[in-house]
Amino acid sequence: MTIPLPYPATGCKALRRAPSPDSFRALRVRPVQSLDDLQRVFAIRATVFMAEQRCPYDEEYDGNDLAALHLIAFIGREPVGTLRLRWFADFGKIERVCILPSMRGRHIERILLAHAIEIASRKGYRLMIGQIQARLWPLWSRVLHCELQDGRESFSFSDFEYLEIDIPVPRHPNPLTSGSDPFILIRPEGDWDRQGILEESAQRSSDRNREEAA
User: Fold this and answer.
1) Contact yes or no for 59/157 (Cβ under 8 A)
2) Which residue range forms the structural domain that includes residue 20?
3) Is residue 145 part of a domain?
4) Domain N-acetyltransferase: where (predicted)?
């Protein structure tokens, strides 16, 4: 069973107002690491983007899903929200943020974004960008410390007008580097604080060597 991400203290610094600790405890957020979770992500996005916003299938599932890190949020056993992260040389990109209609108004988007920024910060990024529907700029500007990108005009796709925003990423106190413990660097993406399967493998090899030497 995947252990949820820790309370995202660094990620919360990117929020203009962090939800209460009780709100964080009520919502479980984890990185997608299985086909089942990816199907849950696709179901949420179909409900929001395809059903609500009438986005065509080929435009919603755009060829980037298997090259991205997805986060999924649960209340109890029910998946209620998701977002997608993609990584470039010196910035990351937050995409496909969506919450089930029946679950809105519970700060789920803030909690998902705090976890996303926490991961970006841990990876050493200092900038995330977003392409947001222009009509939602007032909402994004209230949720995150972010700015409209200078000199960039709006653009349109899938029948909506979009704006580009910059989201500064707070510096993490313990970022991943090329000098980090090798076993931390091979743990599942976004799950760096829990011992991974390959560490169990290393212990098995160590035990076998001791037995052979005895």
Assistant:
1) yes
2) 9-125
3) no
4) 27-168
**Final residue of a domain: which of 107, 125, 143?**
125
Look at residue 207 and tell me whether its pLDDT is greater than 70.
no
Residues listed for the chain: 214
Contact indicator for 54, 97 with CB cutoff of 8 Å: no
**pLDDT, tens digit (0-9, with 9 covering 90-100), for 76-108:** 999 999 999 999 999 999 999 999 999 999 999
54 torsion bin: left (phi>0), alpha (psi -120 to 50), beta (else): left
pTM score over 0.70: yes
**pLDDT at residue 1, rounded to an integer:** 35
* Domain finish residue from 92, 125, 158: 125
Return the percentage of the chain with pLDDT > 90, whole number: 86
Mean pLDDT value across the chain: 93
SS (H, E, C) the chain: CCCCCCCCHHHHCCECCCCCHHHHHHCEEEECCCHHHHHHHHHHHHHHHHHHCCCCHHHHCCCCHHHCEEEEEEECCEEEEEEEEEECCCCEEEEEEEECHHHCCCCHHHHHHHHHHHHHHHCCCCEEEEEEEHHHHHHHHHHECCEECCCCCCEEECCEEEEEEEEECCCCCCCCCCCCCHHHHCCCCCCCCCCCHHHHHHHHHHHHHHHHHC
